[in-house]
Every structure is written in C-alpha cells, then in structure tokens.
Design goal:
Blueprint lengths: L2 E6 L4 H14 L4 E6 L2 H10 L4 E5 H7 L1 H5 L6 H17 L7 E5 L3 E3 L4 H6 L5 E5 L15 E9 L2 H16 L19 H4 L3 E4 L4 E3 L9 E3 L5 E3 L3 E2 L2 E3 L4 E4 L2 E3 L11 H21 L19 H17 L2 E3 H4 L2
Parallel strand pairs: 1-2, 1-4, 2-3, 6-8, 9-13
Antiparallel strand pairs: 4-7, 5-13, 6-7, 10-11, 11-12, 14-15, 15-16
Helix pairs in contact: 1-9, 5-7
Length: 332
C-alpha cells in the first residue's frame, strides 16, 4: 500500500478531487491524507467522503505543530503554503509502517497510468525526487530549483524520516518566493538531499511529471485506446497542470507560453481539453465550488511592477499562440 499526502483550499477543490480520483484509479488501495486549508474545503470533502482519503483541518494541523503556527504571521499566504509542503510529509509519516513510502503530491496533477515505475526506481532508495528536465531555453529557471515539488517521496526508514524532518525544519526556518543563494521556497531544498543524505535517487522516467516546462524535451502520442506514450514507449504516468488559471468563468489560460513550450494538437485536445472538461464535471456534481471568501494572512504582497507589466504581454502572447482553453470547446 502506498501513502500520499497533499493540501489545497476550497478554490482548488475541483483540481484536488481530479488528482485524488485519478490517483485512486491507477493505484487502487492507496491512502491519501489531505490537509484542508480552509473550513469550506474540509466541509465539502467530509460531505463527499472519498474512499481512502483522511482529512485534517489546518487548525488541527497548526495545533499539533505549534512551530509552524509560530511563523504564520511572518509569511504571506503563498509563502505559508510553500512552508506547509515541507511540513505535512513528516506528519503523514507518523502513521506509516517501517519501510512504507510516503509521497507528497501537488494538487494540480492528473494520473494516467500506474506510478509503479516510480516506486521500482526507488527499490533501494530512501528519498525520491523528480527533476524539472527543463528544455534548453528554460534552463535559466534552474535558479528556482533543479527538482520539482510536485512529487517527493520518502521511505519510512531512518534516512527517509531524517530527510523529511530536515525539509520540514528548513521550510520553517526560511521559505519565501524569492531566490536567496541556494534557497527558493520549498523547492530548492530538494537539491540538498543528495549532499546531505545517502540513498537519494532522481526519478528519470519520462512519463513522470510531464509538464509545460519540459514538454519540449519529449514526444507524446495518444494510442487508439486513449492511453498516452512518451518518447515512443514510456507510459504517461502523470501530467502536471501547473499554472492553469481561470481568467473568467469557463475560460482558462495555460502556462506553456511562459516557458516558450509548444501547445500541440495532442497536448491541447488530448490533455488540456479533457482536463478542463473533467474540472467542469466535478464542479457540476458537487454543486459548484464553495463561494466562501479566499483565505488571507496579515502579510499581503502586491504584484511587482514586473508582474504587472508582464501579465498583459503573456496573455496577449497566449491568445496569439492559441493557449487559451474554453469550457465550451472542452464539451465538444
């Protein structure tokens, strides 16, 4: 049995459910711990009672982890969420049997086939991480981390527990959305694992963590049965739908243009349109996303001048390149 943990608030409820249900389809019997970041998220997930899913409220988590709560007022919401990535794995590992693997997952993943090849690559490892595999013109982004936080695995042994504990303590000490030497958010800490701990492995399966930042490096095709293969023969295990933003009801902006990545017919019609359609179906079946206010903390970071100037440029480029996805198109 594999154990997973993730977190999201009610604004991500549809994406979190899509990830959880797709994972359960390809890894039956898995256990998934969800840290619910808002009461509305916990309320809806409790009502749905997803099989194999256990819930914890943020209030409960902060009560059990007072050192996390103590730094809450020093972080904006984004940075506090970054901090939690490095903290929830240690909590999830408390319930793991010796030798079990506990994996942190981002909520914006979607699974297409068994993660078995990832665990096979960890047969002799205590920690497993997946590289961004940036294509050459996105290499500049490695300053934010060679490895991606979307999937991070720890075995419940001495090394894995110590590595998870170190990641937790490091994120509590410093976790912000700016590069500071060899630190960036929760992500750049993953590079330190190889230097600080034995039995750390990089998962190199091409079908693991395919996303907008590395799609240029891989070929992807859809078979007659609907399954996807990467680089001619590797099954697509999961795709990372990072940066998908709903600009207005039913209209989504994809992030490929930010990485100068392609948006081929297979990627658009095979991956993104079905994903947007899935999110819509989930919203319909749960009665829509909760309309509770968005969470906020005492520290609020306004957009930088660079972000304000770049946003319309990126949206114009995305529109020109056809990187918008409409729900109406997804229904066809």
């Amino acid at each position: 049995m594999h154990r997973y943990c993730t977190f999201f608030d009610h604004r991500y409820l549809d994406r979190g459910l899509a990830m959880i249900r797709s994972l359960r389809d390809v890894d039956p019997g898995c256990r998934i711990s969800v840290l619910c970041l808002t009461p509305a998220c916990e309320r809806e997930l409790a009502r749905l009672a997803e099989p194999g899913v256990t819930l914890a409220s943020l209030e409960e988590f902060e009560r059990d982890n007072p050192d996390v709560l103590a730094i809450k007022d020093t972080r904006c919401l984004r940075d506090y969420y970054f901090t939690l990535s490095g903290c929830i794995v240690s909590s999830a590992m408390r319930d793991a049997d010796d030798g079990e693997i506990v994996t942190y997952l981002d909520a914006d993943l979607l699974f297409y086939s068994s993660p078995g090849p990832i665990f096979e690559a960890m047969a002799d490892a205590s920690v497993g991480v997946i590289g961004h595999r940036f294509h050459w013109w996105a290499k500049r982004l490695e300053k934010y981390g060679k490895f991606n936080v979307g999937w991070v695995s720890f075995r419940a042994d001495d090394v894995g527990r110590e590595a998870a504990r170190w990641w937790r303590e490091s994120c509590i000490e410093w976790c912000y959305g700016g590069v500071d030497g060899d630190r960036f958010a929760d992500q750049k800490y993953l590079e330190h694992f190889f230097r600080k701990f034995p039995r750390v492995v990089e998962i190199t399966h091409p079908g693991a963590n395919l996303g907008p930042w590395n799609i240029c490096r891989h070929s992807i095709a859809q078979r007659a049965d609907g399954s996807f293969v990467v680089d001619g023969g590797f099954p697509l295990i999961f795709f990372h739908f990072s940066g998908v933003k709903e600009l207005e009801p039913g209209r989504f902006l994809c992030s490929h243009v930010s990485y100068l990545g392609p948006f081929s017919r297979t990627v658009r019609r095979g991956l993104y349109l079905p994903y947007i359609a899935l999110l819509e179906r989930i919203r319909v079946t749960i009665g829509g996303l909760p309309r509770d206010p968005a969470p906020c903390l005492s520290i609020v970071l306004p957009p930088t001048t660079r972000e304000r100037l770049l946003a319309p440029v990126i949206r114009t480029a995305a529109r020109w390149a056809g990187h918008y996805v409409e729900q109406a198109e997804a229904r066809r």
